From TrEMBL:
Known function: Involved in the biosynthesis of ADP-glucose, a building block required for the elongation reactions to produce glycogen. Catalyzes the reaction between ATP and alpha-D-glucose 1-phosphate (G1P) to produce pyrophosphate and ADP-Glc.
Top-level enzyme category: transferase
Catalytic activity: alpha-D-glucose 1-phosphate + ATP + H(+) = ADP-alpha-D-glucose + diphosphate
Biological pathway: Glycan biosynthesis; glycogen biosynthesis
Database matches in CDD domains: ADP_Glucose_PP, LbH_G1P_AT_C
Residues that, per the record, bind alpha-D-glucose 1-phosphate: Y109, G174, E189, K190, S207
Keyword rRNA-binding carried by entry: no
Name the UniProt record assigns to this protein: Glucose-1-phosphate adenylyltransferase
Highest taxon in the source lineage: Bacteria
Length: 421
């Protein structure tokens, strides 16, 4: 098949413009998105969520990328400017930031389709053959080149990336029904009663928020939708349901290249899923391999010294077990178990940290016990603090999730924000 021909795929990716929708508010992440947008939330010890779709683009050979921002985008913009400026404009490579500018209408982005529509003049100036639209707030590794190749070979007008999820999870996604040739027959956005797959009573086919459009078709549908009274200006709610009967709209199942099984994909949209997805990485063989040199995750990072573990007394031993510890951390006479520490975390003597995610620039005082927690960037945890043992006491000071994870931010501690979020 021609999709196995590297030259064929490289021509397609070279003529594809990627649009990463990164304006999400991320309200289900509670206080983690009080000062930053969801795509700017740190993940995996040294990355931010936006790094995953950006890295997928680069690794797939797509080097014409626009990032559409809106909600509390300052830290996201800084991160992209600092970490993604290595592409060469002389070769037609770029990562452009497109903040909400009211370029066409006198309002901010109303939905995903409206975000693209309001930048139509910029899209036309780039003149791509295909447009790849991506959500900027999911964790996964995916070769978009294979999806674009299949889109072109099938003669589709639009191809939608999809995964299989349980029916409860499907309520938060676009759910589709397909025929034997993967043509989409039905599409419902966030249905209260998701339709299961044939022969799979507990599983539904859900949209990943990844779309490949033929450029002319995309322009036509965006303009038609903008002229439609009552439209919410959203791909999942409005455009896709309206085009599936008249045009060739296909589903693209996301599969792991080596195993053929469904690929790793996480929507870290709640405190519980954020905590669990981070701690997954501390396992012996985690489902997401960050050590894969053939598919690196790129990011901006400070130049920091190695992590340091000091003191080796019986009751005062600096150690970490089944954990990820990033550069600049100092584990001083304290114990860390099943946890993930971002950069510049200091944990002082006689403290125990277990099953916790500690974001950058946190200082934890002596004689603390912290379990099942997410500690936000810049927190100064006072000496003797106990978190994660008494849900009632925790709820009086912090946010406690449905799954019992305790979120701690500087605001909750009465501390001044010292860092760009």
């Amino acid at each position: 098949m021609s999709d196995q021909n590297p030259r064929f795929v490289s021509r397609l990716t070279r003529n594809t413009l990627a649009l990463i929708l990164a304006g999400g508010r991320g309200s289900r992440l509670k206080h983690l998105t009080k000062w930053r947008s969801k795509p700017a939330v740190p993940f995996g010890g040294k990355f931010r969520i936006i790094d995953f779709p950006l890295s997928n683009c680069i690794n797939s050979g797509i080097r014409q990328i626009c990032v559409l921002t809106q909600y509390k985008a300052h830290s996201l913009i800084l991160h992209v400017q600092r970490g993604w400026g290595f592409l060469r404009g002389e070769f037609g490579e770029y990562v452009e930031l497109l903040p909400a500018q009211q370029r066409i209408e006198n309002n901010w982005y109303e939905g995903t389709a409206d975000a693209v529509y309001q930048n139509l003049d910029i899209l036309r100036s780039h003149n791509p053959d295909y447009v790849l639209i991506l959500a900027g707030d999911h964790i996964y590794k995916m070769d978009y080149g294979a999806m674009i190749a299949e889109h072109v070979e099938s003669g589709a007008d639009l191809t939608v990336g999809c995964i299989e999820v349980d029916l409860e999870t499907a309520k938060a996604f676009g759910v589709m029904a397909v025929d034997a040739e993967s043509r989409i027959l039905e599409f419902q956005e966030k249905p209260e009663h998701p339709k299961p797959m044939p022969g799979r009573d507990s599983t539904a086919l859900a949209s990943m928020g990844i779309y490949v459009f033929n450029t002319k078709f995309l322009y036509e549908q965006l303009i038609k939708d903008a002229d439609t009274a009552g439209s919410s200006r959203d791909f999942g709610k409005d455009i896709i349901p309206k085009v599936i009967k008249e045009y060739r709209i296909r589903a693209y199942p996301f599969r792991d290249v080596e195993s053929g099984e469904q690929g790793y994909w996480r929507d870290v949209g709640t405190i519980d899923s954020f905590w669990a997805s981070n701690l997954e990485l501390t396992g012996v063989t985690p489902p997401l391999n960050l050590y894969d040199h053939t598919w690196p995750i790129w990011t901006y990072q400070e130049q920091l010294p190695p992590a340091k573990f000091v003191f080796d007394d019986e009751e005062r031993r600096g150690m970490a077990v089944d954990s990820l510890v990033s550069g600049g951390c100092v584990i001083s006479g304290s114990q860390v178990k099943n946890s993930l520490l971002f950069s510049n975390v200091r944990i002082n003597s006689f403290t125990e940290v277990e099953k916790s995610v500690i974001l950058p620039d946190v200082n934890i005082g002596r004689n603390c016990r912290i379990r099942n927690a997410v500690i936000d960037r810049g927190c100064e945890i006072p000496e003797g603090t106990i978190i994660g043992e008494d849900p009632v006491a925790d709820a009086e000071r912090f946010y406690v999730s449905e799954g019992g994870v305790v979120l701690v931010t500087p605001d909750m501690l009465g501390q001044v924000l010292r860092y760009v979020r």
